[in-house]
Amino acid sequence: MAVRRKIIWNYGSAWFPIDFVSTFPFDVVVEAAAGGDSTGFNPQNLKLFRTLRLIRLLKLIRLLKLGKMMPKIEETLGVTPAGLRLIKLFIEVSFIAHFLSCGWYVLLRV
Question: I need a surface site. Which of 8, 35, 39, 97 has the fewest CB within 10 A?
Answer without folding.
Answer: 39
